[in-house]
Write a structure and sequence with these properties.
This protein is mainly beta. Helix content is 8%, strand content 49%. It has two helices and nine strands; from the N terminus they run βαββββββαββ. The strands form two sheets. Strands 1, 4, 5, 6, 8 and 9 form a six-stranded antiparallel β-sheet that branches. Strands 2-3-7 form a three-stranded antiparallel β-sheet, with no helix packed on it. Strand 4 and strand 5 form a beta hairpin.
């Protein structure tokens, strides 16, 4: 897959999507054997910082069953009228998560926006935390 077709390739650090997001398609892609994950709390420190400043992310969540060999992938998304630019910030280490409440921690020194045009950066941006279990993904 390439960046030009708007699809994500796990071997690439980023991709650009030029299509519209379909929530119904995203719901169809989820499988019933994926664990139920409920977010209890999201903390980002410091609360106010620039893109070039370090930050820490902590997510407290609950699972409805034990999950073996899972991790979190953190992405930065800048959304404009004609395209979406994703940058993968990193991943947590692979862990086994027990049924019930758990925490994840992620830290980054800076968000590299050198590949994103300044005009695009003026638009809406999101931080995406994606829970990955055995190549199944759930964005929260």
């Amino acid at each position: 897959m390439s960046k030009s077709d708007g699809k994500y390739d796990d071997d690439e650090d980023e991709y650009v999507s030029e299509g519209k997001f379909s929530e119904s398609k995203a719901m169809d892609d989820k499988t019933s054997d994926f664990p139920q994950i409920d977010i209890v709390c999201v903390e980002i420190e410091p609360v106010r910082s620039g893109l070039k400043d370090p930050f820490d992310l902590k997510i407290t969540f609950t699972l409805d069953r034990d999950v073996v060999a899972a991790f979190w992938r953190i992405k930065f998304l800048v959304d404009s009228a004609d395209k979406r630019v994703y940058t993968v910030l990193g991943e947590t280490s692979i862990e086994d998560y027990p049924d019930g409440e758990s925490d994840m921690f992620f830290a980054v020194d800076t968000i590299d926006v050198s590949n994103i045009p300044k005009s695009t950066l003026a638009n809406a941006a999101l931080l995406i935390a994606e829970f990955v279990e055995m190549e199944k993904k759930l964005q929260v």
